[in-house]
Design brief:
Layout (H helix, E strand, L loop, with lengths): L1 E6 L5 H10 L12 E3 L5 E6 L4 H6 L5 E5 H7 L4 E5 L5 E8 L14 E4 L2 H11 L4 E4 L15 E6 L3 H5 L2 E10 L1 E5 L5 H21 L1 E9 L3 H7 L7 E4 L5 E9 L3 H10 L3 E7 L6
Parallel strand pairs: 1-3, 1-4, 7-8, 7-9
Antiparallel strand pairs: 2-3, 4-11, 5-11, 6-9, 6-10, 12-14, 12-15, 13-14
The protein binds phosphoribosyl ATP and zinc ion (ZN).
Length: 283
Amino acid sequence: MIRIAIQSKGRLNEQSLELLKDAGVIVDSLKRQFLGRAEGFPLEVLYLRDDDIPEVVADGSADIGIVGLNEVAEKNADVEVLRQLGFGRCRLSLAVPKNAGYEGIQWFEGKHIATSYPNVLNAFLAKQGISATVRTIMGSVEIAPAAGIADGIFDIVSSGGTLISNGLVEVERVMESEAVLIAGRSLSDEKQALLRSLLFRIDAVSESRDKKYILMNIPTDKVDEAIRILPAMRSPTVMPLAAKGWSSLHSVVKEKELWDKVERLKALGAEGILVLHLDKVIE
Ligand code: PRT
Ligand code: ZN
């Protein structure tokens, strides 16, 4: 049995459960308690506040966890970051009132900065040689300058909308973050074997998430050129069509390259192009 800590509610909860589900580990979220048992894998789920996850994994109360890299950095917990999971993307940034006349990091010298991430901020300021007073506030950090509590803030930014609606501008991006899978450093052999098998499944899900399956009909004399546009895992599948001089070509393509490749394939004479969702990719 292996125990995973995930956020009980909040921004990472749904996607953490979805990742487990796609990996064949079903957790009944309706029956969610403090500690739940999964179906399809010998795994227990511990539902916690995200702030508590790094330490609980570091002290062995849970074996692994899913949490924002920002929390791992702030807690400075002794855990191993095993995988970046591609959701919960955000950054930790310094922001100041838009009329503050900001010209560079020196602006913060002698100033007061409000944040929920004092450790990450202090480490950054020390590295930059800036001495400022860090005020730790949990929640609603963005109102601190208008409330006269601080000159600037250091907080999570995603779309930037919250900063704008509070009359603030982002001036320094300090750290990029996303949800990560973390593990304790002293797992038993049995737990390590379960972790390897869970990672195998998670990797298959992650591999499929940014890829699409593509198939098309193409003149047979253009197949070689098409294969140069579409290198597949080993090599694309090519099958003759009943219509003479035509072939069917199947491959896998990265989603972000999809439209560019489709245009080039169409220019080669490809027709009937189908793009399909991939559920798992096991290389
Ligand atoms: O109750 P618990 O302690 O578990 O939850 P929480 O309230 O501390 O965290 P939660 O659920 O808000 O966020 C969990 C994790 O999601 C964070 O630790 C980040 O790793 C990640 N994440 C991704 C974000 C955001 N995006 C985000 N936009 N966390 C918070 N925000 C907030 C931010 O604090 C700010 O108030 O959203 C606002 C900014 O968003 P934009 O889009 O306006 O820039
Ligand atoms: Zn929290």
